[in-house]
User: Fold these one by one.
Assistant:
Number 1:
Amino acid sequence: MLINNAGVFNSPINQTSEGFQHELVVNYFGPVFLTNLLLKREIGLKKVVNVTSSLAKYGSFFFDDLKGLQMEKKVRYRNSKLALTAFTNKIIEEYKDKDVEFMAVHPGLVVTKLGRNILPNWFSWVEIIILPLLLLLAKLPIEGAQSILYCIAEDCSSGYYGDSRRKEWPQFCDNKEAINKLYKETISLLSNF
Ligand SMILES: NC(=O)c1ccc[n+]([C@@H]2O[C@H](COP(=O)([O-])OP(=O)(O)OC[C@H]3O[C@@H](n4cnc5c(N)ncnc54)[C@H](OP(=O)(O)O)[C@@H]3O)[C@@H](O)[C@H]2O)c1
């Protein structure tokens, strides 16, 4: 089983040594690369759980700037999670005849260290009011882990999950043309490494 959980929000690092935007690498290209590497090695991978975010629905496909170097900071996270969700959707189709399940799971809003890079840039009077409200609504880490644990422990099949149940894929996953294009261009880009 592979759980692609590592993620970063508002990364202070701009560019990786390979010439990619850092936030896209951690949240999208890294999980795609690792997943494909392990699938190719045929080590008997049965389940891949990609930890995404409901913020993906505010993202957009970024074909004209695949490495993300021109991408505005405020859209990087949502775009990277859109891409990860789209990848999960596509790879289900690619491996439909194989004995492996792929899940995209949204853990909900959780109080973790994910927001560690927000304050220096975004802190304003608006945030001072909104932040305590968000913290009141947010889940504790143990609660946030439940949907991921559900995907691991239960006999779940490929699909999109949240609140410890199967859910509809976000609307952007209806755009098969864009999903196919992103998948193709991503695999082609990563084949250089
Ligand atoms: N918290 C939320 O409200 C929320 C909502 C939706 C989705 N998510 C997703 O949930 C996942 C877990 O995040 P979290 O909320 O638990 O945040 P977190 O406490 O910041 O945990 C993120 C994890 O990712 C690791 N990580 C970050 N950059 C890395 C890198 N370059 N290489 C290897 N590991 C790296 C971190 O390791 P270090 O601590 O060693 O840096 C940490 O273990 C992420 O994919 C996030 O996008 C979270």
Note: Residues 19 and 47 are 30 Å apart (CA to CA).
Number 2:
Amino acid sequence: MNLLPLLFLLPALLGLVPPMQVSAAPARQIHLLRPVMGSAGAAVKVKGVSCSSWQFGVETNSLRGWNTVPAGCESYFGHYMMGRRYREDSRAVAAAAAEYARGLQISSGGGKQIWVFDVDETSLSNLPYYSRHGFGVEPFNATLFDTWVATGTAPPLPESLKLYKELLSLGIKVVFLTGRAEEQRQITASNLKKAGYYSWEKLILRGNGALAHENALQFKSSERLKLTEQGYRIVGNIGDQWSDILGSPEGERTFKLPDPLYYIS
Ligand SMILES: [Mg+2]
């Protein structure tokens, strides 16, 4: 009896061969989607709290001021961010925003209705960076992150890009408001355009000097106040951090995208 074919089959029979890769991924991936969900999820306990419960605390702004994702949750958040669920959660928020926008009376606004978009993890996705840096488990490294930003290659968050296009078609202008430094204006503008955000009313970055002591919430609130003082009406505001959407004037409606990877106060 010829045993040779059995020798080739043996690894597969023992489960030593990885399953065939499925290539039928959805269009407009952010970054190498991995269709695995929850395998390291609720079972992963961190100090008595599951990773998914920790995530709930983060997204409801109940857990504040944290520096890193719990070490045991890297795999959980890797699966969350790279799998379908992050996209589905983003889609639910962006779809609600679009539905709200379609109900607005834009034609009577004199062209002064604006929608404020945050940049990182809202308009652009830094998943290519965070996927190489532990999905929030590693302490934030500004030098490494700025090096990544300088490449100008962050992909769009597809759900936000779709919302952006719909808002423009409705006659709502977009203002990008970001905590990125003024020195990063050129690369940020070029990255936004490359990602499909081809025009905007304003791109507001964080300048140096007297306002350097402000936290993100104070900086963004004061910039929104300036916009209203310039006669703009902020009909909507979308961001991934609570500091994007808290602080008067918040905008007539706010929308919070998911982001369990980092916290900015
Ligand atoms: Mg952000």
Note: The pocket of magnesium ion is lined by residues 118, 120-122, 239-241 (CB under 6 Å).
Number 3:
Amino acid sequence: MAAVATVLLPSAMHRVSPSSLTRSLAFSIGDDGFRLRSPFNSRRVRDSSSGNSRIAVHCVSNTGTSRDKLFPLASTSTPCRTIHSGFKQSFPWRELSARFVATEAVANDAVGVPSLPQEEMPPRVYTWPYKKNPRVCILGGGFGGLYTALRLESLAWPDDKKPQVLLVDQAERFVFKPMLYEILSGGTYMPKPIECIIDMGNIYSKRWIQTISAEVDSWEIAPRFADLLSNTAVQFVQDRVKVLQPCDHLGINGSAKSDSAGTVLLQSGLLIEYDWLVLALGSETKLDVVPGSAEYALPFSTLEDALKLDSKLRQLERRNFSKGSPISVCIVGCGYAGVELAATVAERLQDRGVVRAINVESMICPTAPPGNREAALKVLTSRKVELLLGYFVRSIQKTSDSDSEKYILELQPAERGMQSQILETDLVLWTVGSKPLLSELEPREQPLELPLNARGQAETDETLRVKGHPRIFALGDSSSLRDLKGKILPPTAQVAFQQADFTGWNLWAAINDRPLLPFRFQNLGEMMTLGQSDAAVSPSFIDGLTLEGPIGHTARKIAYLIRLPTDEHRVKVGLSWLTKSAIQSIASVQDTLTKIVSGS
Ligand SMILES: Cc1cc2nc3c(=O)[nH]c(=O)nc-3n(C[C@H](O)[C@H](O)[C@H](O)COP(=O)(O)OP(=O)(O)OC[C@H]3O[C@@H](n4cnc5c(N)ncnc54)[C@H](O)[C@@H]3O)c2cc1C
């Protein structure tokens, strides 16, 4: 007879085999504080007083004592006869009132096929390599998370205190976001032995080949975590964080007896127990802002976004090449991201397209240093970017003409005296607003105990510990901290990068019972890219100085090269950029010579 044990979930009955039950029971059971160990031991025993069969399950309490817990068994073979009910089963991802229903065959420990649906599958517990060393779990491998992990690696630790570090990210690659624009900006000349290529039935000239090679390759600005961490002791798990269940605020951590300071459940069902948690999940573009924006506008926040935009532009470039129809791109927002995108896309399209940038404010980059703003304005004007300032986008709709998709933007003036406008475009890029991803985690039935501000960022104290949670640090776009003047620090890589240094240090201090340091942000200045050989850089240490054009571009690239995550990667990328710039110089000399020889 098939072995069946049933866990009654709130809404439906799910059948699980003993093997999956093994895992589903790996957490606290009953209200007596006893939990089951994973994998648990169970055996069939006979109750001496009644003579009935029982399943004895080996349970361990939070204080380390253990005992067998007896579950009665049905003496008949009738499936699903209720034999034990009413105790509270606490699963880490939700509170369940579970009722166990078993048949005789359970005791024979027969093997069955788990039949819980994926989302209800019980978690597997992550096995840390060492029993005693502190367990640090870092969520998010961006500027905050990855650099914290590397900082922890670089510090000197007493042997027994050296933490085991686990980095979790949903993506396979770390992304150096400030350089995502370079994926779009072509220009590196790649000599080819042929003068034309045939692509999808169309013939493209050498000029086409020149424009399709990007200024940077994906691997340079988005290296794989596995490669970056290969020479470190940091473990990496690629998975999506689903649920947080901290318990350090309950005061059960920090004592020698505590098991963990909380758990993190990942999408795959992996459950991580930790002693220290670092929250660095970053943020993404907030798209759901006006009717049609979520459906029709493209964000520009991840590597996938950049690659998707690149591919859309290629499609439009092909259409332009074969049919001659000009390409129209509308960019919503003229903060740093909007202006950098506008400059990059306009440079790429040249006279094949029209770029419009729309901003509700009456100026571009209102918070930027004046030198950066003026440099950007000069470049946008020289590339004929149309600025529609003082407008907000009311809606985006899609229309289709005979052979292409078009979008209609309805613009409403922010001030009186201006006319509403309707724009037709091939592509809408959205750069306004962002949403911290910490607040996007799946809600638990109990409210998440973290103090989040209205934007969904965790509020921290000066040492970057989440308020009320001595074992959780938060940094980067996931966190909210005010500077000494009371201003919330901006969600920038510069802030996250500096906070990672402090988070690493403060974890060291906390684990070694030393005083923690208050974080102080040092504004080093602001940089923006404006195309393949243009940028604006305003360093904070020389008042009023702005490096523009190729000098600004080189200064920005060197600054970012220095900030790449590891020495190995820095060297590889440095060599690659040197090679590309050598090829580019040779190509431009070759072009000049050709022009002189041909007299053009
Ligand atoms: C296009 C662009 C250009 C920018 N340019 C600049 C600039 O020039 N200068 C500057 O200072 N700042 C710039 N920024 C801002 C800067 O990149 C961010 O402020 C910075 O990356 C924040 O670091 P972080 O560690 O908080 O988050 P991120 O670097 O975004 O890292 C978060 C990580 O968490 C992972 N993650 C998110 N949710 C989950 C989940 N549920 N499960 C698992 N993993 C998850 C993500 O995959 C990501 O790897 C730019 C941002 C963008 C998008």
Note: Residues 567-598 form the longest helix (32 residues).
Number 4:
Amino acid sequence: MTYILKNNVNEYVLKHKIGYGATCECYLGQKINENSSEKYAIKIFEKNKYIFYSNEVSFLSELNDNSNIIKLYEYGQGVLTPISNTDNNTNDNITNDNANEKTVYYQIMEYAINGELKDYVKDTSSRIPEKISAKIFMKIVKAVKYLHENDIAHCDLKPENILLDKNFNPKINDFGFSQKFDGKNGNFLLRKRSRTPRYSSPDVRLALTKGYNGIKNDIFSLGVLLFVITIGNFPFDTSTYSDDKYKFIIKGRYNQFWEFFNHIKISDEFKDLINNLINLTPNKRLSTDEILKHPWLIKQLGDNYETICNTSNQDCTNNDDDIDKDIIDELSSRKKLL
Ligand SMILES: Nc1ncnc2c1ncn2[C@@H]1O[C@H](COP(=O)(O)OP(=O)(O)O)[C@@H](O)[C@H]1O
Ligand SMILES: [Mg+2]
């Protein structure tokens, strides 16, 4: 189905759906009556999802200068009208179906043409090499550090919410569940639950009674995310005592946890980093600064470590400045198999 989205200033044609989640549908769109062929990702929220729309807008409208965070260009309320279009390549011959038009909330966003990082993770037998996952992870961690420095906890970090642009540069997306904490007063405790149980820390289960530290929960999710993108499988099902793998992390018996993955070749530095991200005790989890200095990253990145670590994620007007050939080669060869 094709749609037209109109607000007070602009008109967009929504060509086809490129993704969806629990809160919105996302379409590939273009401005009508403009010579530019610039493509946008246009997220459409039904009125009953306003809370997620407004939450995301409140964060993303503040965060427009980091090259590893998805950009929000325009947002608001608009009218969405289904159309029948006899010629997909032009905007001619459009017939509006005004009877079915509806008012929605929309976000016009940077289009991450290579989709979700999750789709590039296959299985344990076809893994992304540690050298490449280290580079991707480094960029994600630097962007999370920036979020935390701005007193924002993402609360839903997972490979589905990491999008890839034309150069396969990772972009953190989906701020529908993010929360602001009052860092200056030392009050880091958040009470709303974060979203995806498989990536949530044990502390989140206590959220409604005691609150939890949003930064430390994001770090835990980064641990699960790193494991998934590097090993091609989940480290455990849930971070509870009843989980047959996580129970060994709770008991501090890390060697027994890793025995489940004995058949996979994994470096000791990688295991050490994971152990320090998914720790039961929030205060024992590393900070983003400590992650960036971890021996696994230093070893995997080798001669590139200093350059990558010190390159600012400050937005470059043109993302072409941020090209990593190793990431492009690995992920584009995987894309062919999707
Ligand atoms: N800027 C974008 N570029 C490309 N695809 C996108 C973009 N934004 C969203 N999508 C697609 O739509 C899906 C759902 O969007 P998301 O923001 O994660 O909403 P939800 O809160 O519903 O999960 C994403 O996982 C992705 O596949
Ligand atoms: Mg999502």
Note: The mean pLDDT is 90.
